[in-house]
Amino acid sequence: MAHAIKQETSDPYMYQPEAETMPREQLAALQLERLQKVVAHAYANVGHYKKALDAAGVSPADIQSLDDITKLPFTVKTDLRDNYPFDMFAVPQDQVLRIHASSGTTGKPTVVGYTEGDLNMWSDLMARSMACAGARPGQVVHNAYGYGLFTGGLGAHDGATRLGCAVVPMSGGNTERQVMLMEDFGASVLCSTPSYALNITEVAEQQGVDLRKTNLKRGIFGAEPWSQAMREELESLFGIKALNIYGLSEIMGPGVAVECDVAQDGMHGWEDHFLFELIDQETGQPVAEGEPGELVITTLTKEALPILRYRTRDITRLNRETCACGRTHVRIMGITGRNDDMLIIRGVNVFPSQVEAMLVGLPNIAPHYQLVVSREGTMDTLTVEVEAVPNTPEADYDRIAKEVVHHIKSMIGVSCRASVMPPGELPRSQGKAVRVRDLRNK
Ligand code: DLL
To answer: What percent of the chain has pLDDT over 90?
Structure first.
């Protein structure tokens, strides 16, 4: 399908140019000053950190250089759960102005809190991120991230308002109405998960709306892994540029890192507010420059919930070269997936995003899929469920399935089965897509 991008060129417009292009030595000096403050703040005000630092034999005064961060213990998700709901907060309750929580499939959710200063900083960073991704003051932003305890909806909402955009607070769902309002209100920017964006394109097609003819210019997509192939698919279906945005509630929410409109090559992680490390998942040691590893983030300016060395479980690579856009902040080169989403099928590591990269673009297959893992005897088996594109004769399903199996074997190295279904059979995403159905413990 031919690309129909409505705005090819982009200027490197910046919301906070001084911060975004700060020379690296200056950035490092700022980071050290802020790191020392945040460690002292966490140690003095959070029981968990007092205990953890004492146990590691390290005191805030030991942080004399940025490298000293490795003396600090890691924070993991269970630390937040163990201190449910508010014991990780570093400020008195009456200074907390917002609470978000992640749903979590089992047990108690992970709870996060924000002071007025934190909300202000978040709005600024989201405004910065949206401008970096090509949004401009005065535009209409259609926000289809879920509103509620999830940080996506309100995070994007406050950022777009701060940037000076008119926000349409849609949240997820009611997709036919979303298509109508996106067209009628002339939205320039769509904020949603990539899987929900795909759902929107399908509903628009059913309604006879050609999204490429609307005013839409940018998609700011994130909150779940997505492949380059999916990016090309979305860019083509909407006639937009699609930019990747990253964040997590424990650290802030959306706006921790974002791709720039200029290079579209890795997400700028905002180093004046966060310190990024990449570690080997097994040893916890730093990986060599350019190697993949688990992203570890320290908040440098958060008041209500300072977090030291948070193990995100997200796998990526870092690039510290200055970007073509002029921004100096480190680039997070896409998220392959979370290490807890990685499937190990008969010894082969498989991320859903790798399978997605394979499937999207194969002829006769719609870009909807699910991976089903089951156990037969002692063997784990993977079945890839895909949908045929409309009007594919059922007699062809078997041949298509064989092609899928062949491609996955040759590209990823894992043997699987494929099940081709008629259009509309697989569940459609309303927010974060469920890519894996694990039947092994059922
Ligand atoms: O997903 C925050 C967010 C909202 C980010 C809207 C971007 C846009 P959580 O629900 O806490 O927060 O989930 C965080 O989602 O650790 C990653 O595993 C995953 N994730 C977020 N952004 C991306 C991305 C929000 N761009 C978890 N690519 C993170 C891949 C992502 N995975």
So the answer is: 91
Q: What CATH number does residue 387 fall under?
A: 3.30.300.30
| Alpha carbon of 48 to ligand 1 centroid (Å) | 25
Measuring from atom 4 of ligand 1, which residue has the nearest CA?
152
- pLDDT for residue 106: 67
Domain count, the chain: 2
Q: What is the domain extent for residue 64? A: 1-338
Residue 67 sits in a domain whose CATH number is 3.40.50.12780
Q: How far is the CA of 398 from the centre of ligand 1 (A)?
A: 36
In this structure, are 132 and 222 located in the same domain? Answer: yes
- CA 222, CA 195: separation in Å to the nearest integer? 9
Which of 311, 338, 365 is the last residue in one of the domains?
338
Quick one: average pLDDT of 347-373?
93
Residue nearest to atom 20 of ligand 1 (CA): 223
Q: Does ligand 1 lie within 6 Å of residue 244's CB atom?
A: yes
Q: By C-alpha distance, which of 393, 153, 141 is closest to 254?
A: 153
**CA 223 to centroid of ligand 1, rounded, Å:** 3
pLDDT in tens, 397-417: 999 999 999 999 999 999 999
Ligand 1 lined by 294 (C-beta under 6 Å): no
Cross-strand partners of 302: none
> Are the beta carbons of 90 and 303 closer than 8 angstroms?
yes
pLDDT computed for residue 107 by the predictor: 77
Q: Are 298 and 359 spatial neighbours (Cβ–Cβ below 8 Å)?
A: no
